[in-house]
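Weekly modeling sync, notes
Attendees: AB, CL, MP (scribe)

Item 1: holo prediction request
CL wants a bound-state model with magnesium ion before deciding which constructs to order. AB pointed out that an apo prediction alone won't tell us much about the pocket. Agreed to run with the ligand included and paste results into these notes for async review.

Input as submitted:
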Amino acid sequence: MPERAVFLDRDGVINLNRPDYVKSWEEFIFYPFAKPALAILAKSNFLIIVVSNQSSIGRGIVKKETVEEINERMKEEVEKEGGRIDAVYYCPHKPNEGCPCRKPNPGLLLKAAEEWNIDLGKSYLIGDALSDIEAGKRVGCFSILVLTGRGREQLPLFLTSPYQYDKIAVDLLEAVEWIRKREKGFSS
Ligand SMILES: [Mg+2]
Ligand SMILES: [Zn+2]
């Protein structure tokens, strides 16, 4: 049986977005609701997979190793509070490199789907930007826009985009609660 997943963008969804990039663990600030939300989601059968653009690597602002260390610590901190993150996929490229993995391209989602045997059409994506929603919709994920991070300022972009969110939630916690309701509970 194929798996189902909840894909999460990182910056602006789990932690505070920084226009100048999260460059160190000190700059990684969890939203207060993020760990509780991930603890609720951890009770589900969904794989929990982070998909993140990290062009700071390609721009030479942050080392790949640093990004991976930040992601590792994020996972550890989430686990301490009863949550889990099963995998983190990131794109290290710059926007002008034309890679298939930088959102709005769905490359990260396709790679995760192949490696984890995920049915994307039965999966969810939660993000704070049109680029997240576009990536999700291009592969058939039910896509939820959160209004944290860049969410609110991105709203006007949807007026002219062919890619539309399926649902808006104020934040990750509301998005997770909503998925739980839509799935008629998590403990199956
Ligand atoms: Mg984001
Ligand atoms: Zn890429």
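Recorded for review: The two ends are 16 Å apart (CA to CA).
Action items: CL to compare against the apo run; MP to circulate these notes.
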